[in-house]
Design brief:
5 strands, two-stranded antiparallel ribbon, 2 domains, extended
Length: 91
């Protein structure tokens, strides 16, 4: 990411990653480049329904959290699962 594609800001954990940039067309250009790398070098393919280009104010959903410009919240689905498990253990 850093050396070949010159991506300035990105986060990665295992097979999940987020690329941050203000230029939407630049991000759209990266999608096929990354897909080609994954296919040719790693024999993988990105999940088409899990590629998102969003505005920062909409929040970034990554690793169970939604990170917004001034705060971070637990994803609703994770929160529900947590409370369900707590209620089951409490009873």
């Amino acid at each position: 990411m850093k050396h070949k594609l010159k991506v300035g800001y990105y986060l990665r954990y295992c097979d999940d990653f987020v690329i941050l940039n203000q230029n939407e067309s630049y991000l759209k250009e990266l999608v096929p480049k990354i897909a080609n790398f994954l296919k040719n070098k790693l024999k993988l393919s990105p999940h088409e329904r899990k590629i998102f280009i969003r505005k920062g104010r909409q929040g970034v959903d990554f690793l169970g959290y939604v990170t917004l410009p001034h705060y971070c919240v637990l994803r609703t689905k994770i929160k529900r699962r947590l409370f369900k498990k707590l209620l089951i253990k409490h009873n």
